[in-house]
Automatic annotation (TrEMBL):
Organism: Thermodesulfitimonas autotrophica
Designated name of the protein: Adenosylmethionine-8-amino-7-oxononanoate aminotransferase
Main location: cytoplasm
Subcellular localization: Cytoplasm
GO cellular component terms, A-Z: cytoplasm
Record has Transferase as a keyword: yes
Reactions catalysed: (8S)-8-amino-7-oxononanoate + S-adenosyl-L-methionine = S-adenosyl-4-methylsulfanyl-2-oxobutanoate + (7R,8S)-7,8-diammoniononanoate
Keyword Cytoplasm applies: yes
Required co-factors: pyridoxal 5'-phosphate
Amino acid sequence: MKRKPPYSPAEVARLKELDRTVVWHPFTQMKEYSSEGAPIIAAGEGCYLTDIEGKRYLDGVSSLWVTVHGHRVPAIDQAIIEQLHQIAHSTLLGLGNVPAILLAEKLVAITPPGLEHVFYSDNGSTGVEIALKIAFQYWQNTGHPEKKRFLSFYNAYHGDTLGAVGVGGIELFHHIYGPLVVHSLKAPSAYCYRCPYGHPGKDTCNRECFAAVAQLVEAHAPELAAVIVEPVIQAAAGMLVWPEGFLGHLRQLCDTYGVLLIADEVATGFGRTGKMFACEHEGVSPDLLVVAKGITGGYLPLAATLATRKIYEAFYADYAELKTFFHGHTYTGNPLACAAALANLRLFEEEAVLNRLQPKIKLLQTLLEDFRELAAVGDVRQAGFMVGIELVCDKKTREPYPLARRTGHRVIRKAREKGVIIRPLGDVVVLMPPLAISDEELRTLCAVVAASIEEAVA
Ligand SMILES: *Cc1c(COP(=O)(O)O)cnc(C)c1O
């Protein structure tokens, strides 16, 4: 088969048929998918993807929130090739490998102060599982076996493995697996547009959600191992931005009541909110930090769970004490992925990516103002380069569209026709462009999405 698009019509037909009949796509109703003829991506460059028929699309969601400097970045390509010339994989179970060591050093240097030890895995969900298990075992190892519950938030998303589902709070994704999981205590989330306390908007906010989580932590502290949160923004929830000060508030609560704080920065890490890590917005250092998605610049699957020295030391003992963290994945610390991550982080420094991002965030903010005028747009939420545009059927009453109308999905299909790839969260249209996107591409992205919204609701 030919390697470069456009593929021949026969090849296109064969791949499309196989894609809709043999591949079972994630988070996808295959009955819907199989009738839609979604593009099959064969190549990419910069912020563009090219399908097998040779059609180009702007990558408006960073290939599901992972791409940072764009596709086919010479420095990352080269780093992977050089690592390939050494070795593709060797295990971290009982052996070291060079890129995993150097990356651990780098991660400790760039993450919030106090995080000194790096435990690798290969996706965000397992990174979260690791944080939960470490938090649980930390209390076992230090003589507090009663501290075994977790507190998380409604609308939270921490991944799809069962531990992560237990701390998840998105009814649509998580409800069916209820009987399979250990449920966390749930505190209210700050869905300010639909404020559970009836005080939508900054002006009327009474910060009831601050008080609610305080009450829960205080009441349950003796049995709580940790609080887990997506700092600054609950992403998969539909890009729900926490009120300012919420993360600092949680840090303080955890300190006061002797509970660990787990920051899930799988989505927010590596520049997405405008700082390297979202925790920096409030000067917070968590006890455990989970990173994944953007860590390799969107090249290869890799995750890391970072822990403080205090936590690490609770596991550091003679073997017979059985304080070992008995957990690991076969591809833990994969050298190719770690080499890609090192190259990704070098680019952040060499190209001053975060400095150059700031004016683009401002431009995006300006462009988003126009969306508020659209009849179907109820709310526009932004944290840096993470954006959620919530569509509603009635702007006044904030009534959502019926589920079966698939409004968000209609929008992304319109956008696709116009050469832009995005993916919604229900009826929230998500924009999460690569940090490398140009001003002009950013304008195109917003213009196409606005037109697509208008067409999809017409
Ligand atoms: C995507 C995501 C995860 C899960 O990561 P996977 O790599 O998809 O397993 C966990 N937490 C947050 C906040 C995420 O956005």
